Amino acid sequence: MIKLGNILDRVFGGCKSTFANCMVMIMVKNKNFISLKQVSINNGFWSYYLKLIKDVMIPYQWEALNDRVPDAEPSHVIKNFKIAAGEIQGEFAGMVFQDSDLYKWLEAVSYSLIAYPDAELERTADEVIDLIAKVQQSDGYLNTYFTIKEPDKKWSNLKDCHELYCAGHLIEAAVAYYEATGKKKLLDVACRFADHIDPVFGPESHKKKGYPGHEEIELALIKLYKVTNNSRYLNLSKYFIDERGKKPLYFEIEAYNRGIKNIHNIWGELGKKYFQVHLPVREQTTAEGHAVRAVYLYSGMADVALETGDQSLIDACKRLWDNLTKKRMYVTGSIGSMSIGESLTFDYDLPNDTNYSETCASVGLVFFAHRMLQIDPDRQYSDVMERALYNTVISGMSLDGKKFFYVNPLEVWPEACEKNKVKSHVKYTRQPWFGCACCPPNIARLLTSLGKYIYSKKAKEVFVHLYVDSELKEKISESEVNIKQSTQYPWDEKIIIDIDSKKETEFTLSIRIPGWCKEAKVKVNNNEIDLDSVMEKGYAKINRRWKHDSLEIYLSMPVMRIKANPNVREDEGKVAIQRGPIVYCLEEVDNGKNLNNIVLPRNCEFEIKKDKDLNDVCVIETDAFREKYEDWNDELYKSDVKVSYEKTRVRFVPYFAWANRTPGEMEVWVREK
């Protein structure tokens, strides 16, 4: 069967931009696709963050992109675009991938406009889009670094120069802005750029056999394919996935072409694994290298697998998922245990005080988990998605939305961070901005698009992956169906889901019973469901004819002591405190110095309280002991040491809320007595 896109491609021939413009008007109607416009987040936990991003983060980041935030590192982004557009004179400044900060900001703006229409913000976005279009060259190429600094070296160093990475973020922003506003200008820019890239790369003999050093365009091309139905974009994404890791390695070929004769020196101390090119992707079994690049690659693999039905790619994704989440992930849903190369290392190597755990890596982990859910609706994916969202992702921003963590440690000793260079990457206060500012706009674009992650659909089945006070409007069997969640989750154990259908409609509502929950109850119209009879892969599948019905879900949330696999040496003899999806930590401001001296008795009772100073989060208090040493004097080492235990009251706060008060020590894993 010939696809409509292929027919039109033949009709329009070489006139690719005209083809792209025409194809935008012929949207693919994926019956299983849930648009962000179908979901509204009304109240509760996540509405705070969406409003914070709209009111604070988006304006603040706009000021940062324009270098107008006092005492923050300059961004140079808008200045670079104005120089490239010929509006002002100057030299390129910042990272080679600096353009991507603007594209991620635009993507967040797009999603925010869906929830909160704002004419002034939309005008600002339109002006930015005009500037971006002005920078685009006649052949479709668009990158301020190469336009300003090295115009004769385009596509000559894919390994290091992030051209395809920036192109990917441009495409994602363009698709998001088109979906939000219906305006095509940025989408036309993205299509022209993609149409420029397509003849450059591919398996054909006259094309470069290259692929990105930093994966990202793979995900973006799938989005562009879905919105245009142009199969060339799908094929190009598939090519980048298929070619990666094949011998001879393209990064060595391009280095040789640049005059580097000893190509073995190009890899750096982390080698080929850093770039995920050590093996073809279908042969990779362990999550390796730069953590963000890795999960972006795996997300792209899952996207291509879902669109093509490639079982070998699905199998590879599942192997990589298992290794990543069962042997290389922190309890907070962060990944990347080594600061050198912001990288993954080896199984169970999960140090708490030197880890990197880049915020962007957890954002990417959410992307990967969400895509795996589309392939196989299994609780293991939504559990990890939830863990990363509620812990590391929002730890990356302060409660006022104006400061950010790039690195997310699980243990902090401020003096060591300042004086021990091994820990110099670890900060105990969030920063107003970064020279490499990938994380703040990444948080913003993920959270403003959160509605896409709550629900999914598969034929006559609607999945509830996340418990968020929200409403989904969906058409099922030609009937308009509203699914509304009302909840104070994650603080409260109760969720109400109201179903309102215009006519009686049969479908399956599949609700996730989280893996951390040991006692759950579900009632439909006050009649309790036998969960054992309806559970499948962690979801309670309730099939019935729905019209005006109500579900009551109860998820027991006792305070839990989490232990790490014995192979995680740093956590031996320690516990982490978790309630619901929230991981907790100790802070010096509540518990004094030397948190390492605190010991939890095994039989202590926990008390849950609300803290108004931390946005009404639930904090946990309990009686513990502080280890005391007598007769130590000034000796550094001693044999006969008397140890006593002094009773003390300790207070745990959610990990995401740490470092919002007086700076000091922090600790997730606590010794157990």
Secondary structure: elements and pairs:
Elements: H1 4-12, H2 16-24, E1 39-41, H3 44-65, H4 77-84, H5 99-115, H6 119-135, H7 144-148, H8 158-161, H9 163-181, H10 185-197, H11 217-228, H12 231-243, H13 250-257, H14 291-308, H15 311-327, H16 359-375, H17 379-395, E2 411-412, H18 414-419, H19 439-448, H20 451-454, E3 455-458, E4 461-464, E5 470-476, E6 479-487, E7 494-512, E8 520-524, E9 527-528, H21 531-534, E10 535-536, E11 539-555, E12 559-562, E13 574-579, E14 582-587, H22 588-591, E15 598-600, E16 607-611, E17 617-630, E18 642-654, E19 666-667, E20 670-672
Parallel strand pairs: 4-7, 15-20
Antiparallel strand pairs: 1-5, 2-19, 3-4, 5-6, 6-7, 7-11, 8-9, 8-11, 10-11, 12-13, 13-14, 13-20, 14-18, 14-19, 15-17, 16-17, 17-18
Helix pairs in contact: 1-2, 2-10, 3-5, 3-19, 5-9, 5-19, 9-10, 9-11, 11-12, 11-14, 12-14, 14-15, 14-16, 16-17
